[in-house]
Amino acid sequence: MRFQLQIEYLLSNPKTVAVGTQSVYINTKDKKKGESSFPTEHELISKNLLPGGSMQFESALINRSLFPKDLLKFSITSKNFILREQFLKLANYGQLANLPQFLHFKRVVENKADSKLKALPNLVKLWVKSTALEEYETPSLRSLLPGFGQTN
Predict the structure, then answer these.
(1) Which of 3.40.225.10, 1.10.8.60, 3.90.550.10, 3.10.20.310 is the CATH number of 2-144?
(2) Could you tell me the pTM of the whole model?
(3) Closest residue by Cα to residue 47 from 102, 106, 95, 119
């Protein structure tokens, strides 16, 4: 059902490069821990791509025909934020959207403060890279730190 709804959305919205869904967060014992409230409009999604909290990247379906063949190259240097980096690139080629339906389950594990600190250099590197993207309005580095440990 998820893929069907996403494909229908992409076919109905030919300028959309990727469409995600809302997520239900569960713990390691499959107990519900919460739900996402991702925005559905491109402007709000793209504005918050770097800080996080605007899209569950793993739930997204991508319209491959809207961007160059070699665009999605993965770098091991940004492993903690590899999907954010790719979606920052995609946003230059079309609209981003989220369906309002909860069609994705995401297992969450309590993050330890030390693992967040280890990922901080990669977040800073991604922030520097994002300043070079033509159509992405980079938030202040300070604004990234409170939402730094978000789930996506």
Answers:
(1) 3.90.550.10
(2) 0.72
(3) 95
